[in-house]
Amino acid sequence: MCVVADKNCSAGTFGHLGTGNCEDCGYGFYQNETGKLSCQRCPDDTEAKHGQTNATGIAQCSTSKEYSFLIDLLKASVLAAY
């Protein structure tokens, strides 16, 4: 386990060696363990749900199809409002 600047970074984050801070995993990445120096990329053809950052597990990755469907649904809702 790695500790950055006396911090044990929680799941969904990683220890950034440059800043010494815990940073959220970015969009399309997750980290299910504590105290890590990097995040894991969501599997091919998936991404973190709804543009989420600080995902704490692979279950928070969804297929691109599911994500595209949600975007299409949102667009249709916005257009229907006008």
Give a quick set of tags describing it.
single chain; 82 residues; alpha+beta; two-stranded antiparallel sheet; two-stranded antiparallel ribbon; 6 strands
Describe the secondary structure blueprint for this structure.
Layout: E1 13-15, E2 22-24, E3 29-30, E4 40-41, E5 46-48, E6 61-63, H1 64-81
Antiparallel strand pairs: 1-2, 3-4, 5-6
Provide a brief overview of the structure.
By secondary structure, the chain is α+β, with helices and mostly antiparallel strands.
Write up this protein.
The chain is of the alpha+beta class. It has one domain (13-81). It has one helix and six strands. It has one helix at residues 64-81; strands at residues 13-15, 22-24, 29-30, 40-41, 46-48, 61-63. The strands form three sheets. Strands 1-2 form a two-stranded antiparallel ribbon. Strand 1 (13-15) and strand 2 (22-24) form a beta hairpin. The chain is elongated. The N and C termini lie far apart (53 Å).
Helix content: 10-25%
Mean pLDDT: 78
Strand order within the widest sheet? 1-2
Instruction: Report how far the terminal alpha carbons are from each other.
Output: 53 Å
Count of strand segments: 6
Largest sheet at a glance? Answer: 2 strands, antiparallel
| Overall tally of structural domains | 1
State the helix count.
Answer: 1
Give the uncertain stretches in residue-range form.
none
- The helix/strand order is EEEEEEH
Based on CA atoms alone, the radius of gyration comes out at 16 Å
Shape: elongated
What is the multimeric organization of the chains shown?
single chain
Beta content comes to: 15-25%
Which class best fits the helix and strand makeup?
alpha+beta
